[in-house]
Specification:
By secondary structure, the protein is an alpha/beta fold. The protein is built from six helices and five strands; from the N terminus they run αββαβαβαβαα. The structure holds guanosine-5'-diphosphate.
């Protein structure tokens, strides 16, 4: 998760070493969540979700039912919140992406506060670190760490810096936020009533968004 244009799609492509996510120099294009099923060396698949970027107010043209630009913006915001809420209802591991060149943005601070409360495990990743010189990057990372009060992993989708560390971080977050897969089946206590149905992906707008997003700009 991160601001529009922070480099979410580029980072996904760099992580999986394929162009699966469409990138764009123009902010505000990603209005839907995209989900990527990633398999590594025969291990269990993991699902990477690229959420719509925040911090870019312009609503998409032709927002359904909008009668004015302001109504379109509000509809866009409502749609964004519905998608994000549906995703975080499952308490996934959450990565907040911040642009290494812009420490301390109010939208990033708010997102960090929110994501920490909503996720099973979280971390902050500073993108586009290749754009900073040595001195600038030290200053920027210090500034992030002091504002967000957590360590920040610098990465670059262009040079590949930090990607191995990011995979390790993802593995750590996943192992902390899910029960171990190798755990033997636990004995079930006797139940007087039928077991509840297994938890499914929330059937909110996210389901529609995910299927509608197939093949569209991320
Ligand atoms: P998204 O909107 O968050 O998905 O951002 P994109 O992945 O589409 O990237 C937005 C812009 O930033 C594009 O022009 C990318 O080429 C550029 N970009 C993304 N990651 C990096 C990076 O690590 N280094 C540099 N120099 N540019 C990047």
């Amino acid at each position: 998760m991160g601001r529009s244009n922070v480099g979410k799609s580029s980072l996904i492509n760099a992580l999986v070493r394929q162009r699966v996510a469409r990138t764009s120099a123009a902010p505000g294009k990603t209005r839907l969540a995209n989900v990527y099923r990633v398999t590594r060396g025969g291990g269990a698949p993991l699902y990477l979700l690229d959420l719509p970027g925040y911090g870019y107010a312009r609503a998409a043209k032709g927002q359904r039912g909008a009668t004015s630009p302001e109504a379109a913006r509000r509809a866009s915001q409502t749609e964004f919140e519905a998608i994000v809420r549906a995703v975080f209802a499952r308490q996934p591991a959450g990565l907040l992406l911040v642009d290494a060149r812009h420490p301390g943005l109010a939208t990033d601070r708010a997102a960090w506060q929110w994501i920490r409360e909503a996720s099973g495990g979280t971390a902050v990743v500073a993108t586009k670190i290749d754009k900073l010189g040595r001195g600038e990057r030290i200053r920027a990372l210090r500034a992030f760490e002091s504002v967000l009060e957590t360590s920040v992993l610098p990465v670059s989708a262009v040079t590949g810096e930090g990607l191995d560390e990011l995979w390790k971080l993802i593995d750590r977050l996943l192992s902390n936020s899910h029960p171990p897969r190798s755990r033997p089946p636990q004995p079930q206590p006797p139940r007087a009533t039928a077991a509840p149905p297994p938890r499914r992906f929330p059937s909110t707008k996210l389901g529609a968004a995910l299927s509608a997003s197939k093949g569209r700009k991320n």
